[in-house]
Automatic annotation (TrEMBL):
<protein>
    <recommendedName>
        <fullName>Large ribosomal subunit protein bL32m</fullName>
    </recommendedName>
</protein>
<keyword id="KW-0689">Ribosomal protein</keyword>
<comment type="function">
    <text>Component of the mitochondrial large ribosomal subunit (mt-LSU). The mitochondrial ribosome (mitoribosome) is a large ribonucleoprotein complex responsible for the synthesis of proteins inside mitochondria.</text>
</comment>
<keyword id="KW-0809">Transit peptide</keyword>
<dbReference type="GO" id="GO:0003735">
    <property type="term" value="F:structural constituent of ribosome"/>
</dbReference>
<dbReference type="GO" id="GO:0005762">
    <property type="term" value="C:mitochondrial large ribosomal subunit"/>
</dbReference>
<feature type="region of interest" description="Disordered">
    <location>
        <begin position="173"/>
        <end position="196"/>
    </location>
</feature>
<comment type="similarity">
    <text>Belongs to the bacterial ribosomal protein bL32 family.</text>
</comment>
<feature type="compositionally biased region" description="Polar residues">
    <location>
        <begin position="173"/>
        <end position="187"/>
    </location>
</feature>
<dbReference type="GO" id="GO:0006412">
    <property type="term" value="P:translation"/>
</dbReference>
<dbReference type="Pfam" id="PF01783">
    <property type="entry name" value="Ribosomal_L32p"/>
</dbReference>
<keyword id="KW-0496">Mitochondrion</keyword>
<dbReference type="InterPro" id="IPR011332">
    <property type="entry name" value="Ribosomal_zn-bd"/>
</dbReference>
<keyword id="KW-0687">Ribonucleoprotein</keyword>
<dbReference type="InterPro" id="IPR002677">
    <property type="entry name" value="Ribosomal_bL32"/>
</dbReference>
<dbReference type="InterPro" id="IPR051991">
    <property type="entry name" value="Mitoribosomal_protein_bL32"/>
</dbReference>
Length: 196
């Protein structure tokens, strides 16, 4: 391919020289410029990992092996600071209401579950009777066999009554649904804390 291309270039150059003798200068249409540089061939290098990475990054690989003490400390903790071992709990007590065990300082899960189920039933009954509209008025829940309290008519202004078709559970007190009677304090007096 290259010898033929070179031959054609030589023919064009000779035509150009002949035309130059006739007119004194080359016409713009026949001006031809060609720069041919032979690419130098590089010898093949041996392939290495440095050619891939170069000045890039390397993965963070630990240089030293962790000792068994450090491995156990990470796994189980240290008794004086953070101890991760399974330690028997000593703060378990028995619920006075249902007899189930629970941690001291926490609610009994069994009793809380009962209250949660009863509360969801009340919420469903309120939603069934009053719909999804916002409730600006107080709601009084009455169980089967209960009568509304004898109070003046002013008490019933703006209140809604929801009746549950079952008896009130013994553990579900009426006081749970009543508002607090204690008024918030307006006092700004601060009690001293350094008195013993």
């Amino acid at each position: 391919m290259l010898p033929r291309f070179g031959y054609m270039l030589n023919v064009l150059k000779t035509i150009e020289r002949n035309v130059l003798h006739l007119f004194g200068h080359p016409p713009k249409e026949l001006a031809l410029v060609q720069i041919y540089e032979k690419q130098p061939t590089h010898p093949k290098k041996s392939f290495s990992i440095k050619d891939i990475v170069g000045d890039g990054f390397l993965l963070a690989v630990p240089k030293f092996r962790r000792t068994i003490e450090k491995r156990l400390k990470r796994k189980y903790g240290y008794p004086e600071y953070v101890w991760k071992m399974l330690v028997p709990k000593t703060n378990i007590k028995v619920c006075n209401e249902c007899g189930h065990h629970h941690e001291r300082g926490r609610l009994c899960e069994h009793c809380y579950k009962k209250v949660e189920i009863e509360t969801k039933e009340i919420q469903a009954k309120i939603q069934e009777k009053l719909g999804n509209s916002p409730i600006e008025k107080d709601v009084i829940v009455l169980y089967e066999g209960e009568n509304p309290p004898d109070t003046p008519k002013e008490f019933w202004n703006g209140k809604r009554i929801v009746e549950m078709k079952k008896e009130r559970p013994q553990w579900f007190s009426k006081n749970l649904l009543q508002k607090s009677t204690q008024q918030p304090s307006d006092s700004t007096d601060v009690k001293p804390t350094d008195l013993a």
